[in-house]
Write a structure and sequence with these properties.
With 156 residues, this protein is an alpha/beta fold. The chain has two domains: 72 residues, no CATH class; 71 residues, no CATH class. Helix content is 32%, strand content 22%. The protein starts with 6 loop residues before the first helix and ends with a helix.
């Protein structure tokens, strides 16, 4: 997961979400194996990517320049998922300003992943989902309230 937040906020954000979730949620660390029922949040100081080694996926943290003014960048994560996970992935782009993630979501869709964009009515800021919809990067629009059910349906 990529959230546009400064580096000193993402760890506390992950801990807070972990406290209220049934899933294990944590700030991603470099080169850790991705496990089922875990959520990895990109640190505000690094781009997050996925790589595949054998049958397993691992996190990769990359310190580099901002991409489209963002670090971490949703596009960086989504492009790595499109390349490494392909049709076994699902992607969501939710409320936010700008266009970060739209191109990466399109790459995911082209690779066979299921892709979703938050609808305008449930978005606080419709920028990022709107840009993904303009590119036809989504398979379907969903309300924010429908995201958990949609994820569950993807895995059943």
């Amino acid at each position: 997961m990529v959230q546009h937040m400064p580096a000193n906020f993402t760890k506390a954000f992950a801990q807070r979400l972990n406290d209220i979730s049934k899933l294990k949620i944590k700030e991603a660390e470099h080169n850790e194996r991705v496990l089922a029922n875990h959520v990895y949040i990109a640190p505000g100081s690094h781009h997050l990517q996925l790589v595949r080694r054998g049958a397993f996926y691992y996190t990769q943290l990359k310190d580099g320049p901002p991409v489209q003014r963002h670090k971490p960048s949703v596009n960086v994560l989504f492009q790595s998922v499109a390349k490494q996970v392909r049709s076994n992935a699902i992607g969501f782009i939710l409320t936010g300003m700008g266009a970060d993630g739209a191109f990466g979501l399109l790459e995911m869709k082209k690779s066979g992943a299921k892709t979703y964009a938050q609808d305008e009515n449930s978005s606080i800021v419709f920028g990022m989902p709107k840009e993904a919809i303009k590119l036809n990067a989504h398979s379907k629009e969903v309300t924010l309230a429908d995201v958990p059910m949609t994820i569950t349906q993807c895995f059943s």
